[in-house]
Design goal:
Blueprint: H1 15-28, H2 33-49, H3 63-72, H4 78-97, H5 123-131, H6 138-153, H7 157-160, E1 168-169, E2 174-177, E3 188-191, H8 194-205, H9 227-242, H10 248-261, H11 266-273, H12 278-299, H13 302-305
Helix pairs in contact: 1-2, 2-4, 5-9, 6-8, 6-10, 10-12, 11-12
Length: 320
């Protein structure tokens, strides 16, 4: 009969080592590079903010819970608070499965209700924006194609900038957002209008042969074009000219609002946007319902059927 050997868990010496092991686990789980970097920043920011809890015995430190409460209590913004809490909650839950903790120090903390940050760009501004890129240059044609794609499909900026030539089907006018590119790790197919298909075809035709593995939307040197670079490009080249603050993500909002205002189905919108729940999609529905409410008041037949209120003094009505 073989002898049973008791194995002792390896104890980490620092929070940096623990975080490195956690990030390795998340990478093995298939998390995107951006998600992993978010974890690195959020968790690291907490530990760097509280040097007093830096010790080999950190996981037995009674100050851990108090430090978390103090840390999260600094953030008034629900969005920032929720980001911090979500990352820490997942990190410490992993620490429990690794035997480093017996309970989650974020236990009992709930996300704050945040108002949806949906910005509606007026059609006049969007029309002006589409006229600005110089389509006689590669960078201008790329910008124009990106603008069309986002307004045509509502694709996330990060997803659009990872698309490869093989993801684009010219004949059917479709884009395949595969699971490796999609933020939610669920693939979906987006249907393009003729103008978008035409511009993407032209953009791809201008690429040198050695760019065969470069993303569809790349730099003038055939290198990946980051979401940060795209945001800076809009700010520096177009934002001042249209007279309104515009971000790449606002183009996604514009698509969703226009889709619903033009009679699109909310369930179809959920699939197109790649939302994991209908609740996320309903944020756009609330804004379009306000449009309907205002239109209903303006178009009500009673506006013309009833006489306008007289400015004369109202007589007293006596009840019997």
């Amino acid at each position: 009969m073989s002898r049973i050997v008791s194995l002792r868990k390896t104890y980490f010496q620092s929070w940096e080592e623990v975080l490195a092991s956690f990030l390795l686990f998340r990478k093995a789980q298939g998390n995107s590079k951006r998600t992993i970097e978010d974890y690195r920043y959020q968790v690291g920011h907490f530990f760097r903010s509280y040097p007093a809890i830096h010790s080999p015995q950190i996981w037995e430190n009674k100050m851990l819970r108090e430090s978390i409460l103090s840390y999260l209590g600094k953030y008034e913004s629900p969005v920032t608070f929720n980001l911090r809490l979500s990352s820490l909650k997942i990190f410490f839950q992993w620490a429990i499965t690794e035997g480093l903790l017996t309970s989650n120090p974020t236990e009992g903390l709930r996300k704050r209700k945040a108002s949806p940050r949906i910005v509606n760009i007026p059609e006049k501004v969007l029309s002006h924006l589409l006229q600005l890129p110089d389509r006689n240059t590669f960078s201008g044609l790329r910008d124009y194609g990106l603008l069309l794609l986002q307004l045509d499909t509502g694709i996330r900026p990060g997803e659009a900038l990872k698309l490869k030539i093989e993801d684009f089907e010219m004949k059917s006018g479709t884009i395949n957002v595969n699971s490796k590119v999609a933020k939610t790790r669920t693939s979906r197919t987006l249907f393009l209008s003729r103008p978008t298909t035409k511009v993407l075809t032209e953009l791809i035709s201008l690429r040198p042969q050695e760019w065969d593995r470069a993303p569809i939307f790349c730099t003038c040197e055939g290198q990946p074009f980051s979401t940060h670079s795209w945001g800076r490009r809009i700010i520096e080249s177009y934002q001042e000219k249209v007279g309104m603050k515009i971000t790449p993500y606002m183009l996604r909002h514009s698509f969703a609002l226009a889709f619903l205002r033009n009679g699109g189905n909310i369930f179809a919108l959920q699939r197109i946007m790649g939302h994991t729940s209908l609740e996320m999609t309903k944020r756009y529905l609330a804004l379009t319902e306000q449009d309907i409410k205002e239109a209903a008041f303006l178009a009500s037949p009673l506006n013309t059927l009833l006489e306008k209120p007289s400015r004369k003094r109202v007589r007293t009505i006596y009840r019997n």
